[in-house]
Amino acid sequence: MNSSSSSVQSRSLASPVAAALAVAFTIVSWASAFPFIRIGLQGLTPLHLAAARFGTAALLVTAWLAYRRPRLPGARDMLRFIGCGFFGIAIYNALLNTGEKTVAPGAASFIVNTLPIFTALFATIFLGERFNRWAWLGSIFSFAGIGVIASGQPGGLVPGAGASLILLAAVCSAAFIVMQRRLVPVYGPLACTAYTILAGALWLAPWLPGALTELSSASAPTAWAVVVLGIFPAALGYATWAYALGYFGAARASNFLYLTPAVATALSIALTGDELHATTAIGGLMVIAGVAYVAWLGRR
Q1: Cβ–Cβ contacts within 10 Å for residue 250, how many?
Q2: Do 177 and 88 touch, CB atoms closer than 8 A?
Q3: Which of 7-11, 168-172, 187-191 shows the lowest mean pLDDT across its residues?
Q4: DSSP for 22-38?
């Protein structure tokens, strides 16, 4: 085999390896958000943590925008991005962070994993997509799993309790995803993520001075948690996810995300001393099974 054919073969092998590494990096990055939120909450209030996290992410995003110079959104799309930043960044993280004050990180990751069901529901209502009886059955099974998880957390699913706030966070994130669907084909996934992060950081900006004040006297683990949250889940995780989407396609790539709660639970045990309760394990498996059922059969 000559050197030319060898280089072509090496390039063809590099893509699947790079795509697999991108998926692995994305899953670990997004899973790490749950335990690092718990660590960050030891020194920051929920809104201050969100503001510091996305203030950090905004610095990276601004540098990327200055380097790549993607298409700028028009006035109407700018309003859509502002809405995406409000629901997908500001409100989502305010609810998630507040919920994690009482809900274990592993349990929170399983509850957030209901996101595809809410996304499918919103897509059915607002985009005219299908949601058949199998989807309803899978959804009911997943929500029953959430009830099992919540039964082992303080307050259960009582309105205002941590588990209910995290469930609302998943609803907000689903609304953001549906809002963003018409923007991605126009601007691309990375530019859409960048504009949404900037919009979210602006919504959270009023809490940034308080976050900086708290960080000045916070412990080293709290400060590192902010840095990790801003760089990995908020910025780099989306970049590697965009690469994975380009190689695997949305449907196939999304299947890998079912691993996220398990990885989040493992990281939570290692980093925060979180314990895996039977209610979290049983309810989490029910949630994943229901979500997978909706993804495979519910929209055919």
Answers
A1: 11
A2: yes
A3: 7-11
A4: HHHHHHHHHHHHHHHHH
